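Let's sit down with a protein and look at its sequence and fold side by side. Once you have written the record down, we can walk along the chain together.
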Amino acid sequence: MLHTTQTYLPTKLTKGVAQITTIPNFFGSISLDKQTVLVLFLGFEPERALAVWKHFNPVKTITLITNPPRYGNLNYLRYAEKNNSYLLSQPSVEVRNVPADNPYAVRKV
Protein backbone atom coordinates (compact mmCIF):
# COMPACT_ATOMS: atom_id res chain seq x y z
CA MET A 1 0.00 0.00 0.00
CA LEU A 2 1.33 3.41 -0.96
CA HIS A 3 0.68 6.87 0.34
CA THR A 4 1.20 10.01 -1.69
CA THR A 5 1.94 13.07 0.41
CA GLN A 6 0.01 16.02 -0.91
CA THR A 7 0.94 19.67 -0.94
CA TYR A 8 -1.52 22.25 0.29
CA LEU A 9 -2.60 25.41 -1.44
CA PRO A 10 -3.76 28.48 0.48
CA THR A 11 -7.33 27.24 -0.01
CA LYS A 12 -6.47 23.96 1.76
CA LEU A 13 -7.23 21.87 -1.32
CA THR A 14 -4.73 19.15 -2.14
CA LYS A 15 -2.76 19.40 -5.32
CA GLY A 16 0.25 17.61 -6.69
CA VAL A 17 2.49 14.97 -5.17
CA ALA A 18 5.35 15.77 -2.81
CA GLN A 19 6.51 12.15 -2.44
CA ILE A 20 5.43 8.54 -2.96
CA THR A 21 6.15 6.23 -0.02
CA THR A 22 5.00 2.88 1.29
CA ILE A 23 2.82 2.72 4.37
CA PRO A 24 4.62 0.76 7.13
CA ASN A 25 3.44 -2.86 7.41
CA PHE A 26 1.45 -2.64 4.15
CA PHE A 27 4.16 -2.72 1.50
CA GLY A 28 4.31 -6.46 0.82
CA SER A 29 7.30 -8.10 -0.79
CA ILE A 30 8.95 -6.63 -3.85
CA SER A 31 10.41 -8.93 -6.49
CA LEU A 32 12.42 -7.72 -9.45
CA ASP A 33 11.65 -11.03 -11.19
CA LYS A 34 7.91 -10.39 -11.30
CA GLN A 35 5.86 -7.91 -13.27
CA THR A 36 4.17 -5.05 -11.44
CA VAL A 37 0.39 -4.95 -11.02
CA LEU A 38 -0.92 -1.72 -9.51
CA VAL A 39 -4.27 -1.36 -7.73
CA LEU A 40 -5.56 2.21 -7.31
CA PHE A 41 -8.62 3.69 -5.64
CA LEU A 42 -9.77 6.56 -7.85
CA GLY A 43 -11.66 9.66 -6.83
CA PHE A 44 -11.12 13.39 -6.83
CA GLU A 45 -7.33 13.59 -7.21
CA PRO A 46 -6.41 12.40 -10.70
CA GLU A 47 -2.94 14.01 -10.62
CA ARG A 48 -1.95 11.87 -7.66
CA ALA A 49 -3.27 8.63 -9.19
CA LEU A 50 -1.52 9.39 -12.48
CA ALA A 51 1.76 10.20 -10.70
CA VAL A 52 1.74 6.83 -8.92
CA TRP A 53 0.86 5.03 -12.16
CA LYS A 54 3.72 6.71 -14.04
CA HIS A 55 6.15 6.12 -11.17
CA PHE A 56 5.62 2.35 -11.09
CA ASN A 57 5.00 1.81 -14.81
CA PRO A 58 2.94 -1.35 -14.17
CA VAL A 59 2.16 -3.94 -16.82
CA LYS A 60 -1.42 -4.02 -15.52
CA THR A 61 -3.45 -1.58 -13.45
CA ILE A 62 -6.70 -2.32 -11.66
CA THR A 63 -8.60 0.83 -10.77
CA LEU A 64 -11.31 0.80 -8.14
CA ILE A 65 -14.19 3.28 -8.20
CA THR A 66 -16.95 3.29 -5.61
CA ASN A 67 -20.10 2.24 -7.38
CA PRO A 68 -22.80 2.46 -6.21
CA PRO A 69 -21.51 5.76 -4.87
CA ARG A 70 -21.98 6.73 -1.25
CA TYR A 71 -25.43 8.11 -0.48
CA GLY A 72 -26.46 7.34 -4.07
CA ASN A 73 -24.65 10.44 -5.38
CA LEU A 74 -24.27 9.65 -9.09
CA ASN A 75 -22.42 12.94 -9.62
CA TYR A 76 -19.49 11.44 -7.69
CA LEU A 77 -19.27 8.52 -10.08
CA ARG A 78 -19.36 10.74 -13.17
CA TYR A 79 -16.84 13.13 -11.61
CA ALA A 80 -14.40 10.34 -10.71
CA GLU A 81 -14.62 8.81 -14.20
CA LYS A 82 -14.23 12.18 -15.94
CA ASN A 83 -11.34 13.33 -13.74
CA ASN A 84 -9.45 10.10 -14.32
CA SER A 85 -10.36 9.72 -18.00
CA TYR A 86 -6.75 9.74 -19.23
CA LEU A 87 -5.69 6.96 -16.89
CA LEU A 88 -8.86 4.97 -17.57
CA SER A 89 -8.29 5.17 -21.33
CA GLN A 90 -4.95 3.35 -21.17
CA PRO A 91 -5.02 -0.19 -22.62
CA SER A 92 -3.45 -1.82 -19.55
CA VAL A 93 -5.99 -0.29 -17.14
CA GLU A 94 -9.03 -2.22 -15.93
CA VAL A 95 -11.90 -0.60 -14.02
CA ARG A 96 -13.68 -2.43 -11.22
CA ASN A 97 -16.58 -1.17 -9.15
CA VAL A 98 -16.42 -1.50 -5.38
CA PRO A 99 -18.98 -0.66 -2.68
CA ALA A 100 -18.31 2.58 -0.79
CA ASP A 101 -19.32 1.38 2.66
CA ASN A 102 -18.12 -2.22 2.81
CA PRO A 103 -14.33 -2.68 2.98
CA TYR A 104 -14.71 -6.45 3.30
CA ALA A 105 -16.45 -6.63 -0.08
CA VAL A 106 -13.48 -4.92 -1.74
CA ARG A 107 -11.22 -7.90 -1.10
CA LYS A 108 -13.54 -10.04 -3.24
CA VAL A 109 -12.91 -7.79 -6.24
User: Anything to note?
Assistant: DSSP finds four helices and five strands in the chain. The radius of gyration is 15 Å. Confidence is low (pLDDT under 50) at residues 5-10.
